[in-house]
Automatic annotation (TrEMBL):
Similarity comment: family membership: Belongs to the NusB family.
Biological classification of the source: Bacteria, Bacillati, Bacillota, Bacilli, Bacillales
Protein name, entry field: Transcription antitermination protein NusB
GO biological process: DNA-templated transcription termination; transcription antitermination
The NusB/RsmB/TIM44 domain, residue ranges: 4-126
The keyword Iron-sulfur appears for this protein: no
PANTHER family cross-referenced by the UniProt entry: ANTITERMINATION NUSB DOMAIN-CONTAINING PROTEIN, N UTILIZATION SUBSTANCE PROTEIN B-RELATED
Record Gene3D superfamilies: NusB-like
Keywords: RNA-binding, Transcription, Transcription antitermination, Transcription regulation
Sample GO molecular function, one term: RNA binding
């Protein structure tokens, strides 16, 4: 599985967890078992879940006129994945993480999602 596809699958899993408030362990296992064993996908999903509180604090501290609770789930999920990559995965160039996040936001969000995600992530890397 290519990393772009793994990011998209990670987004879908994490979005589902955020929306449905299901048992995290069961949902992760079910969704990851459906996919071919992919280390990058598992690293993203499990890493974001494990570091969610720290990631949310980072995102919150870089939001202007928004709170994390008010963010639409698409943008929140994309920002969590990208922030995890930026802060915990040093082998991925920042511009790659940001570009992938903007593309996911455009794909799943509205016409302003990509610009919003890009703006927040640009502040995080400064």
């Amino acid at each position: 599985m290519k990393r772009h596809e793994a990011r998209e699958k990670a987004f879908q899993i994490l979005f589902q967890l955020d929306m449905l408030e299901e048992d995290i362990e069961i949902t992760i296992q079910e969704r990851l078992d459906e996919e071919k064993k992919d280390d990058f996908l598992q690293m993203l999903v499990l890493g974001v879940v494990k570091e969610k509180q720290a990631i949310d604090e980072i995102i919150s501290s870089h939001l202007e006129k928004w709170s994390l609770q008010r963010l639409p789930s698409v943008e929140k999920t994309v920002l969590r994945i990208a922030t995890y990559e930026l802060k915990y995965m040093e082998d991925i160039p920042e511009n790659v993480s940001i570009n992938e996040a903007v593309n996911l936001a455009k794909m799943y969000g509205d016409e302003k999602s990509g610009k919003f995600v890009n703006g927040v992530l640009s502040k995080i890397i400064k």
